[in-house]
TrEMBL record, chain A:
Residues 1-228 form the ABC transporter domain. Transmembrane segments: none annotated. GO terms for molecular function: ATP binding; ATP hydrolysis activity. The lineage of its organism: Bacteria, Bacillati, Bacillota, Clostridia, Eubacteriales. This is ABC-type tungstate transport system, ATP-binding protein.
From TrEMBL, chain B:
It comes from the Bacteria. It comes from Caloramator australicus RC3. The keyword Transmembrane applies. Coiled coil: none annotated. It is found in: Membrane. GO terms for biological process: transmembrane transport. This is ABC-type tungstate transport system, permease protein. The lineage of its organism: Bacteria, Bacillati, Bacillota, Clostridia, Eubacteriales. The chain crosses the membrane at residues 6-30, 42-66, 78-101, 185-206. Its main location: membrane. InterPro entries: ABC_perm_TupB-like (IPR049783), MetI-like (IPR000515), MetI-like_sf (IPR035906). GO terms for cellular component: membrane.
């Protein structure tokens, strides 16, 4: 799914996000980097229509009306809301809403759970650790196989194995379905490992956007240069 | 035998009024919690104020509505258990509504957005919010029931305290006390207290221990 953003402004007490124009080509994995408060999450939530915005337009494959594309977008938030029900029901909830056949639901669950091998599918999801909850929330978003996947720091609470399996999962669905993936991360190396396009944000604006190779080998912006030299995106 | 009848009438009236008020209050509280509209604060404040409405005032209002010359006089509901249910239901409706709104308004928009993003509709959202907040909702319902079973003014006025028909525990206590029969009044008072405790324990055990929280 192509995303075209024009004149997007989101204000809280001050301007949190201000993007003149941004085009994200369908089928790409795009990493959003930036310091805390740079507007990454706000951008993701504006695209997912989780929060209204003050000005601007977002086109989804040329479609302006979000309601027409709602069922083509999945999101995993930074602090995912986990429902008070078993892990399995949390993961397949969206499939149940589609009234899919039980056999198809079970097949999808098996397919995507093979990445993490979660063996606590019957456990109440409210009792999970942060890393486990992140995996459940990610599977809940991925299992829908929608054309646009928005992920806000999906691996922040995961261990190395979980992180690497997540990256493999994202690459696999991107390859299989051509899923457009926007992933917010503080891990520069993760961005380098999986992204086709890297965007760097600062103070609500995009200060650098380039292909993976160009971004990491030939950064233009002084702040990006400094951060790449330091090796981590943290304050 | 009379005592058993009084207890059963009390339970029938209070449980029915609580059930009806709960359904209406929850169905109103959910959209109220997720939508912003012009008179929202005013409606909330009015409902909040109505929580403290004296039962006799509610009894008077329902009495006027159901009396022969009232708008619903033709239904002949005055001095029946149905009239008592109506009065109690109207009395506790604001209590359950306001307490439910207080409990769910912070979490409802998050659940709604997550539900809709997963492809759910309003019915799915309603199921999810009740499932997610059942503990909090039970607390509201318990508060409403406690108020219903313990009030005397409204049921006395619209029920008439008719022996074997509309006499409930609270009106029996009031009557026997006025006659100086403290022994019977005290026995029923203790039964009323025990039933209140029992119903509260049952509702709280249904509530469960899960709480809503974001997982980091």
């Amino acid at each position: 799914m192509n995303i075209l953003i024009k004149g997007l402004v989101k204000e809280y007490e001050k301007v949190a996000l201000s993007i003149d124009e941004l085009f994200i080509e369908g089928g790409k994995i795009v990493a959003l980097l930036g310091l805390n408060g740079s507007g990454k999450t706000t951008l993701l939530e504006c695209i997912a229509n989780f929060k209204g915005y003050d000005k601007g337009i977002i086109y989804y494959d040329g479609e302006e009306d979000f309601e027409r594309v709602r069922n083509k977008i999945s999101i995993m938030q930074q602090r995912p809301y986990i429902f008070n029900m078993p892990v399995k029901e949390n993961i397949i909830l969206g499939l149940r809403y589609q009234r899919l056949d039980t056999k198809i639901i079970e097949e999808r669950l098996k397919k995507y759970n093979s990445y993490y091998n979660l063996n606590f599918l019957d456990k109440n999801a409210k009792k999970l650790s942060g890393g486990e909850a992140a995996k459940v929330a990610l599977l809940r978003a991925v299992i829908l196989e929608r054309p646009l996947l928005l992920l806000d720091e999906p691996t922040a609470n995961m261990d190395i194995e979980g992180t690497l399996m997540t990256e493999k999962l994202l690459k696999d669905i991107n390859k299989e379905f051509g899923t457009t993936i926007l992933i917010v991360t503080h891990d520069i190396f993760q961005a380098e490992r999986i992204a086709d396009i890297v965007i760097f944000m600062d103070k609500g604006k995009i200060i650098e956007m380039n292909t993976n190779e160009e971004f990491f080998n030939n950064p233009k912006n002084p702040l990006v240069k400094k951060i790449l030299k330091r090796g981590e995106v943290n304050d | 035998m009379e005592i058993l009848e009084i207890i059963l009438t009390s339970l029938y009236v209070s449980l029915t009024s609580t059930a009806i008020a709960s359904i209406i209050a929850i169905l109103l509280a959910v959209p109220f919690s997720i939508k912003d509209f012009k008179l929202k604060r005013a409606i909330y404040r009015i409902a909040d104020s109505l929580m403290a409405m004296p039962p006799v005032v509610m009894g008077l209002i329902v009495f006027i509505i159901l009396s022969k010359r009232g708008p619903l006089g033709e239904l002949n509901l005055l001095f029946t258990p149905t009239a008592m249910i109506i009065a109690q239901m109207l009395l506790i409706l604001p209590i359950i509504f306001v307490l439910t709104v207080r409990q769910i308004e912070k979490i409802a928009p998050t659940i709604q957005k997550n539900c809709y993003m997963l492809g759910g509709d309003y019915g799915d959202f309603l199921f999810l919010i009740i499932n997610e907040c059942k503990g909090e909702i039970f607390t509201s319902v318990t508060s409403g029931f406690s108020r219903a079973i313990s009030e005397v003014g409204a049921v006395m006025m619209v029920g008439g305290n008719i022996k074997g028909y509309t006499r409930v525990m609270t009106t029996f206590i009031a009557l026997e006390t006025s006659k100086g029969n403290f022994k019977d009044a005290l026995i029923i008072g203790l039964i009323l207290l025990a039933i209140s405790f029992l119903i509260n324990i049952i509702l709280h055990s249904l509530k469960g221990r899960e709480t809503n929280e974001y997982i980091n």
